[in-house]
Amino acid sequence: MATELPHGSWPSPISAELVAAGGVGVSGPAADGDTIWWSELRPTEGGRSVPVSAGAGGDGPVDRLAAPWSARTRVHEYGGGAWWLGREHLYVAEWSDQRLYRLPLSGGQAPAEPEALTPEPAVQHGWRWADGREHPDGSWLATVREDHHRVGDGDKTEAANEIVAVPTDGGDPVVLVSGPDFVAAPRFSPDGRWLSWIEWNHPAMPWDATVLRAAPVFANHRLGNPVTVAGSQDLGAGATSVVGADWTAAGRLVYSTDANGWWNLHAWHPEGTESQALTALEGAEIGGPAWVFGLQRWVELPDGRLVVAVTTDAVDSLAVLTPPAPGAGPTVPTPLAVEDLAEVGGLAATADGRVAVVGAGPRSLSSVRLIDPDGGAETVVRPPDDTGVDPAWFSAGEAISYPSGGPAGPGGAGGRTANAFFYPPTAPGIDGPAGQAPPLIVMGHGGPTAHADPALSLKVQYWTSRGFAVVDVNYGGSSGFGRGYRRLLQGTWGIVDVEDCINAAVWLADRGRVDGDRLAIRGGSAGGFTVLAALEQSERFGAGTNLFGVADLSALAADTHKFESRYLDGLIGPYPEREDLYTERSPINHTDRLSSPLLVLQGLEDEIVPPNQSEAIVAAVAAKGLPHAYVTFEGEQHGFRKAENLIRSFEVELWFYGQVFGFEPADVIAAPDGAVGFGS
Q1: Distances (CA, A) of 542 to 73, 535, 657
Q2: Is 368 contained in some domain?
């Protein structure tokens, strides 16, 4: 017979320490022959990012970068593409100084000392490097460089993003491509005679309107006249986004474009006249928003087939595509059965025709697996972190769709359908009080152009194993549902996302699945903005947790990094021309509508949402006399990476909900310093 305990007070083996320790971020992968490489972001090592390699036969894994070195780049602030493989070297952008280094691929088990390739900048972090590739002859690299040396020389001067040639013998870098506001994905054709790249300009984001270009490569690091392969700079009705471009062994440039409303694969050859559609999916897509460098949703096998990651309703799967013959119409990928997979983080092909997959599933955290595309045995190269927790504690995400598009309440909402994943409280041998529905935590993902998926997340299970229900909302504007859904947030940020979060809670409460009197909402970054806006637009929520969220949109428009400096043009409107909308939508201007306790968590080195945003909302809440707590973390940027800070953030949030909803957590948690308005 199950033990009855108040929701929120259930003892759980999924501790805050486990959430932090199990939070190793696995990304990549890459392949060097039959050696598999990937990257691990380790909270227990101060957020250090380490390239790791292992043989396909099972030997390894081996760290290829010794402490305290860390392969992380600050280009675009979100980074990605901080290391890549050449014929004989590993190339790394080092976090501490942002210079580019190289190490030999060979050399046994011990990591070698990195050798600097790029000069020391005149200002700290003045040159930042990312997303490079080695020329087939091994003599130079083409890489993205973000130059901050001129920032501050004049009004609104911003960093320059360029594609630069870096000689591998240590010679002076040479600019190859300049002029566009942003560049990404420099990739050489197999014979080294062509270089391709993706570019875009303000105010577009890379999922709005990008252009794929290619240019012939001449001697002495010179490029010929570029050819426009696909895409557009026009943000009008015909705007298209190109992502994931790279070359096949046969010299075809394969890329994804959302010209039909869904990211589909196309191919172009320098000797051809126009591109060929390889797929024409609708309701699913091969591509995703390029928040970071190096994301790849397809990989070529030695026999010319492609293995692709297909996203359908925010859930990933794998498929095998035999490219159609030149001139033939598009074809349909054949699904590849892979157990326990819902999120694909990257793909790479080995010399023996297998595919290295970084991915996670509903029952396991991220791992690196070798998949036989013809249905053979699977090999686990890097197993998922062992939580030590019986899977019976894991709540399975249920995909839900519900009406939204208007005020919640009697009569319901209408106008569109929103999507989410619902997780009921789950703990073996424990139930809540008879006849009592559980409290609900509404989660809004960051971005906001991103999406939640049902892969196992200890950050969700931390709550469900303690007696909370969780709904992870893919509000209008989320990726994973095609361009039309992704564009729902254009001009409506702070409206559509808020409606969809509120209506998710109301829809679940109306069906008796959660307690409508105990609703909380939490979110980070863009999700934090949604939290604040929802608390002001609805009285349904009894508590809110804002993690480094936006409070003042005008301040964000005036004080953020280059990559997102014009993001709000699309989400709200051009600034300062539509300053009225920024004022109207900014939570800091409507604190009189707040009536719920608030917890605010903030990294003090955050350059994307600076601390002054959180300080402003905390001051307003304090002036109104609402119960609140403000917790800051030294040395953290946009999102928390250090284990001790992750632990404290989760414990404080649990303490906060206990104070608001009247339960005593099973965990012993010290109240945060400076918490105001709560009981003892």
Answers
A1: 39, 9, 9
A2: no
